[in-house]
């Protein structure tokens, strides 16, 4: 049952928000179908193996220099060589256009690493931008986790058929069929099935980068017609970019990164593959554009305007990049058990920063399941009178109901400890937050950030849950900047105030959700905005969800 629940979560996590409410029953039925397929596979003891990787050349990042226009702008913008420059990108449109502009202006290299690139308007636009860069002579390295590549072999093979492009798949499945057959044939190796690369990174010319919480799909950039995520990215320049490049190289050259051709042997000639790519990647939506004088909620102009001007309006300070080892989650050799701790760098670093907090820790995590170790950490913080706040998804906003069941086990204990707990309200966010901050048709929270003492902030791909702790590899930045930290805190508090329910306990110990409404707050005694059948179904299935797999 653990394997089934774990796979169910993997298969559901990035389901479009347009289906969260209307067809959530499909998610549960898929769990049942997975159970059936897994049982059949277990009886047949079917097992497929990965092919040899063949020739697998080692390559490294190209460091930024004055030899490219992006490198010259980065050097001209930096007040000191050992500082890094940052800019928050809460706007989906700004975050997408930043990536597209970097791809358009790159002259030497593009290093791109993602958990998911969906075959939709946004994903196709991104892959075409990479292809166009390669046609200009730019070296393109695309590293993609294999979990959500089902049905994309033609698209990816067509991209890889272009000169200057290399595509690698992280921890690929041995079969190239649909999602169900992939899972079924991987049953004998559940640990490998659960080990995914959750990193998100985009580096241009070794000079500028984008990282944060967003995958590449319409719903992460406010382009989905029905529902979109609230998310957060960072535009990065300066001293920390070479660190990010080395972390990319660590994954690119790892034994888990398979050249696409070794997993998907080409059946067509390279010209035929390129022609196929042109056809299947044909634009299905207009490009991202900005109205003149457009600014985001923080007052920034689009990145392309600053690049045109030759200087970047960034916050400059010190930072460290952190990423898990690619082999995270694998059993270490006998006598090297400490390697499992070293491989979990991001979570360990986050915990260390939390332990050092003296006044406040604010956690923003769409999937928040603290577990025993997390609760012990929070208890220690509260015993020292450190204020702790949490912003996460409500049952109505989450795309992962089973994960929500893991989180709700801790709600009462968190409130009893004096933790400020807020849950996103999709209705309130869509009604009051539409526009600069939340975008249109808000579905759920996907931002990942942690504020320490209003002096330092972590922004990256890590959720505060067991899956990020044990199975997914993650990446993030620890930034020592009070100014940037206060911007993150401001965005979080804005979401709490304008788009969330505040949780509290009554004198009798009952749970209440308080929805601010001006003069009169609205009080709920049940999960607000969640459908009745979902609440009942979760009551039935929650006890069956093993926390370690959430």
TrEMBL record:
SUPFAM superfamilies xref list: Phospholipase D/nuclease (SSF56024)
Domain PLD phosphodiesterase: 193-220, 441-468
GO molecular function list: phosphatidyltransferase activity
Lineage: superkingdom: Bacteria
Matches recorded under InterPro entries: PLD-like_dom, PLipase_D/transphosphatidylase
UniProt-listed GO biological process terms: cardiolipin biosynthetic process
CDD domains: PLDc_ymdC_like_1, PLDc_ymdC_like_2
Protein name per UniProt: Phospholipase D family protein
Protein species of origin: Piscinibacter koreensis
Lineage start: Bacteria, Pseudomonadati, Pseudomonadota, Betaproteobacteria, Burkholderiales
């Amino acid at each position: 049952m653990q394997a089934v629940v774990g796979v169910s979560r993997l298969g559901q996590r990035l389901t479009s928000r347009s289906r969260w409410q209307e067809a959530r029953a499909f998610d549960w039925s898929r769990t049942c179908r997975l159970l059936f397929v897994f049982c059949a596979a277990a009886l047949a003891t079917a097992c497929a193996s990965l092919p040899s990787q063949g020739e697998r050349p080692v390559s490294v990042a190209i460091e930024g220099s004055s030899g490219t226009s992006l490198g010259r702008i980065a050097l001209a913008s930096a007040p000191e060589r050992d500082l890094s420059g940052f800019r928050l990108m809460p706007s989906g449109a700004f975050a997408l256009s930043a990536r597209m502009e970097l791809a358009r202006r790159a002259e030497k290299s593009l290093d791109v690493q993602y958990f998911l690139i969906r075959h939709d308007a946004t994903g196709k636009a991104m892959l075409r931008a990479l292809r166009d860069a390669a046609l200009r002579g730019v070296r393109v390295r695309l590293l993609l986790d294999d979990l959500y590549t089902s049905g994309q072999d033609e698209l990816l093979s067509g991209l890889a058929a272009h000169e200057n492009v290399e595509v690698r798949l992280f921890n690929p499945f041995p079969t190239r069929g649909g999602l169900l057959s992939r899972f079924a044939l991987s049953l004998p190796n559940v640990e490998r099935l659960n080990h995914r690369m959750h990193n998100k990174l985009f580096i241009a010319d070794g000079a500028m980068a984008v990282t944060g919480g967003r995958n590449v799909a319409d719903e992460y950039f406010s382009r989905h017609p029905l529902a979109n995520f609230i998310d957060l990215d960072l535009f990065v320049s300066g001293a920390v970019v070479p660190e990010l490049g080395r972390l990319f190289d660590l994954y690119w050259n790892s034994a888990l990164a398979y050249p696409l051709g070794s997993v998907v042997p080409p059946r067509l000639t390279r010209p035929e593959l390129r022609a196929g790519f042109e056809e299947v990647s044909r634009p299905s939506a207009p490009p991202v554009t900005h109205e003149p004088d457009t600014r985001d909620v923080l007052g920034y102009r689009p990145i392309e305007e600053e690049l045109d001007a030759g200087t970047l309006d960034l916050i400059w300070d010190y930072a460290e990049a952190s990423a898990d080892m690619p082999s995270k989650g694998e059993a270490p050799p006998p006598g090297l058990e400490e390697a499992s701790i070293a491989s979990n760098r991001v979570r360990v670093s986050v915990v260390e920063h939390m332990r050092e907090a003296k006044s406040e820790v604010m956690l923003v995590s769409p999937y928040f399941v603290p577990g025993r170790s997390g609760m012990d950490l929070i208890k220690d913080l509260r015993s020292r009178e450190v204020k702790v706040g949490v912003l996460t998804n409500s049952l109505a906003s989450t795309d992962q109901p089973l994960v929500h069941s893991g989180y709700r086990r801790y709600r009462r204990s968190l409130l009893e400890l004096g933790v400020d707990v807020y849950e996103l309200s999709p209705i309130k966010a869509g009604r009051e937050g539409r526009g600069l901050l939340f975008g249109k048709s808000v579905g759920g929270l996907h931002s990942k950030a942690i504020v320490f003492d209003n002096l330092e902030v972590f922004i990256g791909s890590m959720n505060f849950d067991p899956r990020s702790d044990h199975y997914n590899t993650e990446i993030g930045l620890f930034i020592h900047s009070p100014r940037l930290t206060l911007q993150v805190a401001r965005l979080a508090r804005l979401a709490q105030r304008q788009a969330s329910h505040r949780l509290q306990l009554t004198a009798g110990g009952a749970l209440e959700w308080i929805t601010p409404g001006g003069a009169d707050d609205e009080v709920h005694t049940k999960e607000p905005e969640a459908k009745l059948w979902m609440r009942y179904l979760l009551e039935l299935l929650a006890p069956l969800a093993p926390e370690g797999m959430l």
